[in-house]
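> example.struct
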């Protein structure tokens, strides 16, 4: 694959930040037109390992639209991806694709997949610059953007462009540059390692998911015969248990009733590394001259295994939005933002349903956070608080201690829960309202607060808005 170097002060029409699945889909879709100059900047060079080794067969339509289906078939083994789960009980259940009994998927060689997309992008006239990191994006007074980039050797360059597609994954380059709030629904992390079998290879394995008190383990066979093993948990739980220490991580794996047996012959030579897996959503999905795609606009719990197909279809949408913005009235962004929001709410509902199926550890923090139900109305008023007599000392379940402390301070006598939430949101824009309500509920349960009882009608259920449960 050849990539062209950036000359100083380059001028392009569309600049794509990040060369993962969403950026590549956007770039290839844009190049269906031959009047747009597209430059893509990618921090890595496709040699670094990325988690995510399965692809739902639903992705086929998007790959066909991008005219890369033949290349995809030629570069992948097209091996069927099947999963077994011990979730809700110790018994293993066979499923099609992750938690979908009728779903189908392929084992994905992730690096080969991204290289294949990158090759197609370059062959169709796109400019790709690897090992180049975007540092700042500044809007020009006369329109368009001035973007500062840094090469692996530390050299800095400037790129001018009319439009930006932010495909930088969870890093969200535009979000951080424009200081936009990301709504973060949980703090899930994955602590994982690649393993090698003492004899044979992992092709004989199926993907396995096994729940435990402090989270869940995910084992995925890789196309090169190795196996990816990831423990999903929350950062506070993981820190307390010191799961990033190789010997602790291994001992926990060994203790798992199903996986402990199956992983006996697997060797790990690296130290487990941690990666963010939280669910998040960017309300401001774009603006007049930019749009966010893939994980940069909405990111999902790996239990859903929907990240790559969603990233690909977001990328295609973004290409239309960019063209609409540059050559027409720019009205497509609104419907895109609405569909991202609707899809995310739908996803939250599905995710919540997955976690409801595991009932073995109702008291454990990891599960209590994910199975909680909101039971108070926003019209309820605060009738008593105990600021001066008590101090919050115990780590709360739904919020961090300092967030809970501030929430408590917002709970003034006579105020409605709605007012409390509005005040709290001024400071904590990234905390979804439902989490804050769960925090108030916890203050009530632990005796720090009393509220007037209200009709149940106004209540919302867990972590999403009422309308999608109706
Ligand atoms: C543990 C785990 C397991 C998963 N398993 C699956 C799975 O089995 N199936 C599935 O479909 N999905 C899975 N996912 C989700 C999937 O990996 C993501 O949804 C998908 O990668 C999103 O694609 P993207 O292009 O938006 O972002 P990314 O793939 O993250 O690509 C973003 C790119 O931007 C680059 N970048 C970042 N910052 C900059 C910068 N400043 N300058 C230049 N470049 C930059 C990065 O190097 C990266 O290549 C999993 C995720 C995790 C964490």
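> example.seq
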């Amino acid at each position: 694959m050849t990539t062209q170097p950036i000359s100083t002060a380059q001028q392009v029409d569309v600049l794509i930040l990040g060369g993962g699945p969403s950026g590549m889909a956007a770039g290839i879709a844009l190049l269906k037109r031959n009047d747009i100059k597209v430059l893509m900047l990618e921090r890595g060079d496709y040699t670094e390992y990325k988690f995510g080794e399965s692809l739902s067969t639903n992705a086929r339509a998007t790959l066909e639209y991008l005219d890369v289906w033949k290349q995809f078939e030629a570069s992948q083994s097209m091996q069927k991806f099947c999963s077994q789960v011990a979730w809700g009980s110790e018994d293993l259940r066979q499923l099609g694709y992750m938690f979908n009994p009728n779903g189908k998927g392929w084992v994905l060689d992730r690096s080969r997949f991204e290289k294949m997309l990158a090759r197609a992008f370059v062959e169709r006239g796109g400019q790709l610059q690897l090992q180049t990191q975007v540092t700042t994006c500044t809007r020009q007074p006369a329109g368009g953007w001035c973007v500062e980039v840094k090469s692996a050797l530390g050299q800095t360059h400037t790129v001018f462009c009319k439009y930006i597609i932010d495909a930088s994954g969870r890093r969200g380059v535009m979000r951080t540059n424009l200081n936009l709030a990301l709504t973060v629904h949980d703090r899930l992390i994955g602590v994982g390692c690649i393993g090698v079998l003492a004899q044979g290879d992992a092709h004989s394995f199926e993907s396995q998911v096994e729940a435990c008190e402090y989270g869940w383990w995910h084992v995925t066979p890789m196309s090169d015969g190795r196996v990816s093993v990831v423990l999903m948990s929350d950062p506070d739980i993981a820190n307390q248990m010191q799961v990033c220490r190789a010997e602790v991580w291994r001992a926990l794996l060994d203790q798992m009733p199903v996986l402990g047996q199956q992983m006996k012959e697997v060797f790990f030579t690296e130290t487990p590394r941690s990666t963010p897996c939280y669910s998040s959503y960017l309300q401001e999905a774009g603006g007049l001259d930019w749009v966010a795609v893939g994980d940069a606009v909405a990111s999902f719990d790996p239990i859903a295994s929907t990240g790559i197909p969603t990233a690909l279809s977001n990328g295609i949408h973004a290409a239309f939005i960019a063209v609409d913005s540059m050559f027409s009235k720019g009205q497509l962004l609104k419907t895109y933002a609405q569909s991202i929001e609707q899809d995310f709410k739908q996803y939250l509902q599905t995710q919540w349903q997955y976690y409801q199926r595991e009932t073995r550890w109702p008291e454990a923090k990891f599960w209590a956070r994910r199975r909680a139900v909101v039971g108070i109305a926003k019209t309820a008023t605060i009738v008593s608080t105990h600021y001066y007599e008590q101090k919050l000392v115990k780590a709360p379940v739904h919020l961090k201690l300092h967030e809970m402390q501030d929430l408590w301070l917002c709970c003034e006598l006579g105020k409605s829960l709605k007012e409390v939430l509005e005040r709290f949101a001024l400071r904590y824009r990234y905390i979804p309202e439902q989490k804050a309500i769960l925090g108030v509920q916890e203050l009530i349960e632990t005796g720090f607060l009393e509220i007037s009882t209200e009709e149940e009608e106004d209540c919302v259920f867990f972590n999403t808005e009422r309308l999608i449960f109706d």
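> remarks
Confidence is low (pLDDT under 50) at residues 459-470.
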